[in-house]
Amino acid sequence: MTEQTTFAPERLKAFVDAVVAIAMTLLILPLLESVSEAAIDETSTGHSWSSTAVRSSASSSASS
């Protein structure tokens, strides 16, 4: 005779949650590396993107 094993829905939900958490972690890791590289480049060149954004928005407001 073959014995059929049934799993509780809670176990399936926990498994799916774990798989999604691992997938999200693997997807976010390259983004963290890109952000850290951008921060290193910004400090080495002395150029700040935030100051550029403030200057460009101020100049567009002044010209209006």
Helix content: over 70%
* Sequence stretches where pLDDT stays below 50 over 5 or more residues: none
Continuous helix count: 2
Number of strands: 0
- Report the order of strands and helices: HH
Q: What number is the mean pLDDT?
A: 77
C-alpha Rg, in Å? 25 Å
Structural class: mainly alpha
Shape: rod-shaped
Structural topology:
Layout lengths: L8 H37 L3 H14 L2
Structure explained in plain terms:
The protein is mainly alpha-helical and 64 residues long. The chain contains two helices and no strands. The protein has helices spanning 9-45, 49-62. The protein is rod-shaped and about 70 Å long. It starts with 8 loop residues before the first helix and ends with a helix. The mean pLDDT is 77.
What structural keywords apply?
64 residues; mainly alpha; 0% strand; rod-shaped
Provide a concise account of the structure shown.
This protein is mainly α and 64 residues long.
